[in-house]
Amino acid sequence: MRLLKLALPAAMLGIFLFAGGKTNTSWAEAQAAITGSDAIAARDTETPLEDVALTNRCIEGGKEKIYCLCVTKIFKNEMSLREYRGAVALYLRQDLQPILAYDDYTVAEINSIATLSQELASEDMFRTRCDEAETYFAATTES
Question: Please, what is the average pLDDT of the chain?
């Protein structure tokens, strides 16, 4: 039975490799390949991996779940897709070099995204921004 448990994943991996799939593609690279333009608003694009990653990292950072859900909604509502993905990358990584190297962001972009993230998550207007984002997403799910 133990051999069978090991054989199945090995067979699946072998099929994937022989089919020509890439094994070292990050989720951010995969998402970037799917969408055509990062200039569109993040709220107009489905980004479930980024949404979950941002919310979970925020919670792991010691914040309350309701706060983290609001942060995710605010960021997604207010940012472009590229900014949103950069903000998620900043939340996920402590070191900026991987973001600059693999996600092709400039230092100026990272600084701009970090500033925007801090501004959007600040207490000033936070509840208002969260309400606006919730209203927007509730309206889009109803139609």
Answer: 77
